[in-house]
């Protein structure tokens, strides 16, 4: 009944599924779609036919490819397309943004982070601090999580006058916690702190509005909920109020389009987010994203979020109903506004159980010490698959095949 009433049910047919497998790992790598395959093949066929002339075809589409993708992705985060560039990786984009916006002084120099974010973000922050001849042990201020979930008050209370920039996730990759960003950003803006957000585990599953938050920059990968393909090019948002700034890392593709091929020895800054591009676009890492984003715009992010909340709530209900007696519990926050796109299924033997699930055709992932992250994706997973997942898990526990 739930699947018959699902307004997004038709999109499942546009994604490639492996027979006999239930894929619940789209929070790590989204599935390939027919649409993504087509946009990639269109590029490949044009390259085969045209060679170097590919750049001049279709109204120079691929020269301006980032701008085309930005038009498609803008509705997902509620900003202007010219504030978005699709380039590099999530971590490299942190470097790109911080090289421009992190300007420490003797009184205001610290970078505020937490200790449960994805570690690559911290590596980038520490590197940027060292490049300013500062010591991360002094210049990186860490908010320590007390318990399983981050307390927003701890973050806000850590915003002292010496904090110059903060970098936080919107959704925590491990616990699926959604931070109350409005309150955090209001305080940071009040204190003139540069705000950077990692929205990798939020974009494509949560209805984001970065303009309302009034942040300075954001980064995200595109291979999780956005289904852009393994290692697909990442995204960078630069608030238009910073367009006048010279990029801290400049390269030829950040030069104005009209003078780029004049190869002058002085950088002619393109004064929008495209000015933060460095090298030639990685077209084959961008093309599948076009097809995928077209699906998102057709489905609508509000509808996607609505189903995501319902199908994860259904999963939590089944865990409570059937699996608690076998030592399972839900390890994420249950409130809709505090829950991202995956459910944390907790069990002391989670590692072994996840391997047993894999042998039964169930794809999830495991995080130390006891969490199986399970993500029923709105565009291609069904309520029936969630039910089957729980039934298989129940059978594994009854038979002790883990």
UniProtKB/TrEMBL annotation:
PTM sites of type N6-(pyridoxal phosphate)lysine: 224
GO CC annotation, single: cytoplasm
GO MF annotation list: kynureninase activity; pyridoxal phosphate binding
Tree of life domain: Eukaryota
Coiled-coil portions: none
Reactions performed catalytically: L-kynurenine + H2O = anthranilate + L-alanine + H(+); 3-hydroxy-L-kynurenine + H2O = 3-hydroxyanthranilate + L-alanine + H(+)
Residues binding pyridoxal 5'-phosphate, per UniProt: 91, 198, 201, 223, 252, 280
EC code: 3.7.1.3
InterPro entries, A to Z: Kynureninase, PyrdxlP-dep_Trfase, PyrdxlP-dep_Trfase_major, PyrdxlP-dep_Trfase_small
Cofactors demanded by this protein: pyridoxal 5'-phosphate
UniProt pathway annotation: Cofactor biosynthesis; NAD(+) biosynthesis; quinolinate from L-kynurenine: step 2/3; Amino-acid degradation; L-kynurenine degradation; L-alanine and anthranilate from L-kynurenine: step 1/1
Keyword annotations from UniProtKB, A to Z: Cytoplasm, Hydrolase, Pyridine nucleotide biosynthesis, Pyridoxal phosphate
Keyword Repeat appears in the UniProt entry: no
Keyword Hydrolase: yes
Protein family (similarity comment): Belongs to the kynureninase family.
Assembly notes: Homodimer.
Name of the protein in question: Kynureninase
């Amino acid at each position: 009944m739930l699947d018959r009433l699902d307004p997004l049910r038709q999109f499942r047919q546009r994604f490639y599924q492996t027979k006999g497998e239930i894929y619940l790992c789209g929070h790590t790598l989204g599935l390939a779609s027919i649409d993504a395959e087509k946009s990639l093949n269109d590029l490949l066929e044009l390259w085969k036919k045209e060679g170097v002339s590919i750049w001049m075809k279709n109204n120079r589409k691929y020269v301006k490819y980032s701008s085309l993708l930005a038009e498609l992705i803008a509705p997902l985060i509620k900003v202007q397309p010219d504030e978005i560039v699709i380039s590099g990786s999530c971590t490299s984009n942190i470097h790109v943004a911080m090289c421009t916006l992190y300007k420490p002084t003797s009184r205001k120099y610290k970078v505020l982070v937490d200790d449960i974010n994805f570690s690559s973000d911290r590596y980038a922050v520490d590197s940027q601090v060292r490049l300013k001849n500062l010591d991360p042990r002094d210049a990186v201020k860490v908010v320590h999580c007390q318990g399983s979930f981050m307390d927003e008050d701890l973050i806000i209370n850590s915003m002292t006058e010496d904090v110059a920039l903060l970098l936080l996730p919107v959704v925590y990759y491990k616990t699926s916690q959604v931070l109350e960003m409005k309150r955090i950003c209001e305080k940071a803006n009040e204190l003139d702190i540069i705000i950077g957000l990692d929205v990798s585990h939020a974009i494509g599953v949560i209805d984001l509005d970065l303009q309302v938050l009034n942040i300075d920059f954001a980064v995200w990968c595109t291979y999780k909920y956005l289904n852009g393909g393994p290692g697909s090019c990442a995204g960078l948002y630069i608030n238009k109020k910073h367009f006048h700034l010279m990029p801290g890392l400049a390269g030829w593709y950040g030069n104005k389009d009209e003078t780029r091929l004049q190869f002058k020895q002085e950088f002619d800054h393109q004064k929008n987010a495209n000015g933060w591009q460095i090298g030639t676009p990685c077209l084959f890492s961008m093309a599948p994203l076009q097809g995928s984003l077209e699906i998102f715009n057709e489905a609508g992010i509000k509808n996607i979020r609505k189903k995501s909340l319902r199908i994860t709530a259904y999963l939590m209900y089944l865990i409570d109903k059937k699996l608690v007696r076998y030592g399972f519990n839900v390890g994420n926050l249950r409130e809709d506004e505090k829950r991202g796109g995956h459910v944390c299924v907790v069990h002391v033997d989670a590692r072994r159980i996840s391997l047993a699930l894999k042998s039964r055709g169930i794809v999830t992932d495991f995080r130390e010490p006891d969490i199986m992250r399970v993500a029923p994706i709105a565009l291609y997973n069904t309520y029936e698959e969630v039910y089957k997942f729980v039934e298989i898990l129940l059978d594994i526990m009854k038979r002790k095949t883990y």
